[in-house]
């Protein structure tokens, strides 16, 4: 039995003053997530109005902010190697971790017992098209290395993740590209939902939901591309704007994510960011969801989820309102199948360039 990708369409009528109060049918589509108790909403009529919600990114403004903050940026070399916080020697001998152009160091204001920042690249500012596969892979590799060290040092820190905020509308306080790594004793609420639902799915159906998802979406209308054993797809019922999921098939946890997987994640993420730029977005978040750090789980695959956020321009309106923050749903502006059509070519292109 396959996964259920359920959609419901509702049409209700009202009198539209823009059309001389003629009765008009308004269509709303609900898309139910195949795993979680979640639905996203889509109104085809909103697609045009979305231009008002989501103005284009003002790259001149971003560059102005970048210029104004360059001199005091602690993520720009050589400051990143000299004045950023350091871990104690018995935890990380050199105090910081380095790989390629990336440097990991402690967050000065941690929000979890272990919370690191990764400066991604030496350039103070870059556009979405400028996150190369190798750069992204180096940043992720540092994050995963850090989580392994965290789990070794203190086995009660069983949950951790690598995340990213890019530019202020996505929550970043600095324009210099960076990722973050957080680790805690408890699973973060959203991770807990994924873990519990995946385990229930496995108990009931005897199958790994994530492997089923990858298998069913492969070559379908939401499929983006395959990098090694990482399958990328647009989410059917997105949890955030233009959400893309990349599932590392066959990896049963942190211990089984190989260097090749990390490079494949980097390839996919790099292609997705180019696709987001083509869709007209200039900001993003991502999170890599992992099972308990010390476990090998047959019922869960590590996977990354990327979303777009509001563009950066003067007087932008936040994209998060009661629908997301308090009702836990999400608004679909562009249908996932259309998102996939736009991003898919970048998966093919990137392959050719290597
Ligand atoms: Zn910088």
List keywords for this structure.
single chain, alpha+beta, 2 domains, binds zinc ion
Q: Layout of helices and strands, plus pairs?
A:
Layout: E1 6-16, E2 22-32, E3 39-42, H1 46-53, H2 59-70, H3 79-82, E4 97-99, E5 102-106, E6 114-119, H4 133-153, E7 159-166, E8 178-184, H5 189-205, H6 209-217, E9 223-227, E10 230-234, E11 241-248, H7 259-279, E12 284-289, E13 303-308, H8 322-325, E14 330-332, H9 336-353
Helix pairs in contact: 4-7, 7-9
The structure holds zinc ion.
Residues 73, 75-76, 124, 176 line the site of zinc ion.
Protein name: Galactose-1-phosphate uridylyltransferase
InterPro entries: HIT-like_sf
Describe the structure.
- The chain has 354 residues and is α+β, with helices and mostly antiparallel strands.
- It has two domains: 6-48, no CATH class; 55-353, 2-Layer Sandwich (HIT family, subunit A).
- Helix content is 32%, strand content 25%.
- It contains nine helices and 14 strands.
- It has helices at residues 46-53, 59-70, 79-82, 133-153, 189-205, 209-217, 259-279, 322-325, 336-353; strands spanning 6-16, 22-32, 39-42, 97-99, 102-106, 114-119, 159-166, 178-184, 223-227, 230-234, 241-248, 284-289, 303-308, 330-332.
- The strands form two sheets. The protein has a ten-stranded antiparallel β-sheet.
- Strand 10 (230-234) and strand 11 (241-248) form a beta hairpin.
- Helix 4 (133-153) packs across helix 7 and helix 7 (259-279) packs across helix 9 (336-353).
- The longest helix has 21 residues, at 133-153.
- The protein is globular and about 70 Å long.
- The mean pLDDT is 95.
- The site of zinc ion (ZN) has 5 residues, from loops.
């Amino acid at each position: 039995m396959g996964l259920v990708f359920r959609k419901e369409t509702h049409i209700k009528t009202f009198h539209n003053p823009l059309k001389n109060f003629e009765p008009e049918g308004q269509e709303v589509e609900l898309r139910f997530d195949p795993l979680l108790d979640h639905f996203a909403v889509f109104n085809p009529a909103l697609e045009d109005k979305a231009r008002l919600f989501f103005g284009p990114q003002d790259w001149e403004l971003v560059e102005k902010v970048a210029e104004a903050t360059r001199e005091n940026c602690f993520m720009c070399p050589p400051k990143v190697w000299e004045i950023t916080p350091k871990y104690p020697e018995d935890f990380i001998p050199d105090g910081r971790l380095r790989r390629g152009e990336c440097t990991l160091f402690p967050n000065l204001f941690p929000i979890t017992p272990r919370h690191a920042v990764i400066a991604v690249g030496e350039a103070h500012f870059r556009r979405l098209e400028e996150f190369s596969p190798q750069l992204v892979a180096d940043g992720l590799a540092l994050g995963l290395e850090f989580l392994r060290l965290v789990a070794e040092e203190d086995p009660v820190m069983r949950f951790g993740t690598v995340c990213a905020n890019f530019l202020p509308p996505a929550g970043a306080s600095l324009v210099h590209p960076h990722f973050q790594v957080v680790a805690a004793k408890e699973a973060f609420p959203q991770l807990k939902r994924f873990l519990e639902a995946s385990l229930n799915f496995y108990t009931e159906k005897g199958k790994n939901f994530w492997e089923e998802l990858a298998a069913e979406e492969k070559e379908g209308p939401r499929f983006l591309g395959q990098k090694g054993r990482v399958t990328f797809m647009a989410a059917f019922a997105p949890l955030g704007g233009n959400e893309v999921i990349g599932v590392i098939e066959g990896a049963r946890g942190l211990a089984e994510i190989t260097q090749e997987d990390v490079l494949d994640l980097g390839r996919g993420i790099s292609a997705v960011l180019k696709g987001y730029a083509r869709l007209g977005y200039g900001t993003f978040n991502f999170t890599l969801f992992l099972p308990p750090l010390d476990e090998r789980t047959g019922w869960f695959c590590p996977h990354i989820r990327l979303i777009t956020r509001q563009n950066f321009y003067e007087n932008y309106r936040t994209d998060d309102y009661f629908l997301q923050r308090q009702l836990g749903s999400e608004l679909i502006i562009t249908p996932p199948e259309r998102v996939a059509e736009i991003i898919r070519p970048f998966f093919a292109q990137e392959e050719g360039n290597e």
